[in-house]
Amino acid sequence: MLTCMILVFLAGYLVIALEHPFRINKSGTALLTGTLLWVLYMYAAPSLIPFASADEFAHFLESYPALASLPFAEQSIRFVVEHQIIESIGDISETLLFLVGAMIIVELIDGYGGFIFITNRITTKNKKKLLVLIACLTFFMSVLLDNLTTSIVMIMLIWKLIGNYKERWIFGSIIIIAANSGGAWSPIGDITTIMLWVRGNISTSMTIPYLFLPCVVSCLIPVLIARHFLHGDIQSPIHAEDNENDLLVRHLKKKDRLFILILGILCLLFVPVFKTITHLPPFMGVLMGVGLLWVYTDSIYKRRSIDQNLKLDLGRVVHRIDGATLLFFLGILLAVDALKVAGILSDFSLWLDSRVGNVYVVNLLIGAFSAVVDNVPLVAGAIGMYPVATDAMVATASNPDYLVNFMQDGIFWQFLAYCAGVGGSMLIIGSAAGVVVMGLERINFIWYLKNISFMALSGYLAGAAVYVIERLIF
User: Fold this and answer.
1) 27 close to 333: Cβ distance less than 8 angstroms
2) Which of 50, 56, 169, 222 is deepest in the core (most CB within 10 A)?
3) Three-state SS at 407
4) d(CA 373, CA 385)
5) Distances 429 to 29, 118, 140, 213, 362 between C-alpha atoms, Å
């Protein structure tokens, strides 16, 4: 059954990759793949649970003693339905709600003309200069925002600047790379670094100094390569006066539009602070930001005499959100979770450790694999495989030189943060940023593979080499 699940995943992945020639929407393929994998897992659960989820299953039975009298097959079904699927949907819902909230905030800023203040200050028409500027903005924005939100904001920005969609594909691809690279050296810039930081595997004071330069290099190399494909000046899109919300923007004062832009950005920046203070999931912070923006925009209508038909109400904003992207994201995460609960991903991690045994090579392979499968379960599997080593553990180990790599801020954990974050850029569906940009810009998977993957791979390997050199010197 495990072989069958792997084949279904690979088949679904292939159809997603060949969406354009097959003319089958990738969202439908992702949903079908995800649900089929869970169906297969359900039938195989009694044989897989004792090996893949033994401790979790035992804890479930302890929590529900009434299940002790049931046959093992029935217990397995109850475990999958009442625990594993609910836990999976809960984790996925956190991500989707965060994405919906971030999209609403960005759409509100855009609908009220907030991005005009930024686009008006980007005066260069030179494609090469604009590419460098966009890459720098994305790289440093993703340090404070997560790479998912940063990608949404930057795609909205280039929609205002670039008319040619093929040129936007190049810019959008660089946004993916820059967002993933920028998020990898910040403990709050990517979900994987957040996981490692919260669990005590890495610390801020050691992560930033060691990962900053490798991440810069991993972004810089693709940008330098991409510059060779751009020549001349950009072709501007339809101007702001042709925007569907232009009449609303004209009725708003400049200070109102500026305050919406500032408030929206502050709401996004506040999310990691909100999580640190309240310990609530990030989507709660984003939804709070949506509420604040909504209250403020409604207060504007009370102070301004604006026609009811011009008001940007909730229905119009939600209608502008790309639902197909959300469904694609849902299907991909369902598929990955099915592989995770079946033990396929953890088996792969164990195989890497036993057959390779070199922390640099293992992490490079994890980074490459994260271009195919979501990096979150890969990092979670690595965290589960290796406890953070203590001084006492190192002192009593048979191979202390190897175990020291797994201490807090050890080479394994730092390099894992880099590889899992940056490696996802090598394929467009290898990261949350890539999935969102693919949906928003309709970037073709094969086009990205032919034109961008090599750039991302070059940056990934160059940044990895810089990290290795840093560790050898220091």
Assistant:
1) no
2) 222
3) strand
4) 18
5) 13, 29, 22, 25, 21
Strands (E) across 215-305 are located at none
Q: Which tokens go with 35? A: 């649900």
Contact (CB, 8 A) for 174 and 135: yes
Separation CA 64–CA 16 (nearest Å): 40
**356-371 pLDDT, tens digit each:** 778 899 899 888 888 8
Roughly how many angstroms between the first and final C-alpha of the chain, as a whole number? 48
Exposed, middle or buried, 202 (CB in 10 Å: 0-12/13-18/19+)?
Answer: buried
Please answer whether residues 151 and 435 qualify as being in contact, where contact means their C-beta atoms are separated by less than 8 angstroms: no
Q: Is the Cβ–Cβ distance between 120 and 148 less than 8 Å?
A: no
What's the 3-state SS for 103-117? HHHHHHHHHCCCCHH
- Nearest residue to 450 via CA among 173, 227, 219: 173
Distance CA 201, CA 293 (A): 36
Quickly tell me which residue has 């004071």 as its tokens: 205
8 A C-beta contact, residue 234 and residue 162: yes
Question: CB-based contacts of 256: which residues, under 8 Å, 6+ apart?
Answer: 112, 300, 304
The closest alpha carbon to 96, from 443, 447, 442, 436, belongs to 436
pLDDT tens for each residue of 300-328: 777 766 666 666 666 677 777 778 878 88
**The two three-digit tokens of residue 412, written as one number:** 């394994």
Burial of 232 (0-12, 13-18, 19+ CB in 10 A): exposed
Single out the residue of 429, 225, 399, 256 nearest to residue 332, CA to CA. 429
Amino acid 299 reads S
On whether the CB atoms of residues 8 and 434 are closer than 8 A, the answer is no
